[in-house]
Amino acid sequence: MQNNFCVAGFFLIVVFSTKIASAQSHCRSKDSIAIRKAVNEFNDAWTAKDPIRYSAAFALDADWENAFGGHLRGRDSIKMTYQKLMSQFNTAEETITGIHVFCMSPEFALVDIYQTVDGQKLPKSGRLVPTRHIRMSDVYQKINGKWLVKIHRVTDLRERGQNQNTNQADSTKNN
């Protein structure tokens, strides 16, 4: 009986290891580099508070949702909303603390971006928001040779606190 559990356990490890290895094999080196470049362009556009550059990081039919339930569809809608929203972040300093890329196919990748936001102020009261820890989970799609955000989801990691990413390796060199 114990021997059967060992054999079954070994089999599961081999199956899952093979599945993970084959899934990661979709991420060719040049795609991994291009995806990380697209993430940096997305972040640089946000840091510059440039809604045109920011919205250009999205597919024309992108689906966007923030941590507070705001939902947008399409690049134009994202651009119009961000022209108004970006002023809320003028005093904020945002730091990427981890990036994880998982290529699902040659055309699609799931990208988790962990970030700390300090100095954000509420728009009406001007009250300082406590340090936020967020995860942006984006599905990137390769469209006409360029990696664009197809689906964007922001999660507020309220319970994780200051040490949220100490166990999150920046997998820049791994994938």
Walkthrough of the structure:
This protein is about 35% helix and about 30% strand. By secondary structure, it is an alpha+beta fold. The protein has a single domain, classed as Nuclear Transport Factor 2, Chain: A (Roll), CATH 3.10.450.50. Strand 1 and strand 2 (about 70-75) form a beta hairpin.
Mean pLDDT: 80
Rounded to an integer, what's the Rg over CA atoms? 19 Å
Strand order of the largest sheet: 2-1-6-5-4-3
From the 3D structure, determine the CATH topology: Nuclear Transport Factor 2, Chain: A
Largest sheet: 6 strands, mixed
* Low-pLDDT regions: 4-25, 162-175
- Kindly provide the name of the CATH class: Alpha Beta
Q: SSE order, as H and E?
A: HHHEEHEEEE
> Which range best describes the helical content: under 10%, 10-25%, 25-40%, 40-55%, 55-70% or over 70%?
25-40%
Number of helices: 4
Label this structure with key terms.
single chain, 175 residues, alpha+beta, Nuclear Transport Factor 2, Chain: A, six-stranded mixed beta sheet, 32% strand
Outline the secondary-structure elements.
Blueprint: H1 2-24, H2 29-47, H3 51-56, E1 58-65, E2 71-73, H4 75-85, E3 93-103, E4 108-118, E5 132-143, E6 146-156
Parallel strand pairs: 1-6
Antiparallel strand pairs: 1-2, 3-4, 4-5, 5-6
Compose a concise summary of this entry:
The protein is of the alpha+beta class and 175 residues long.
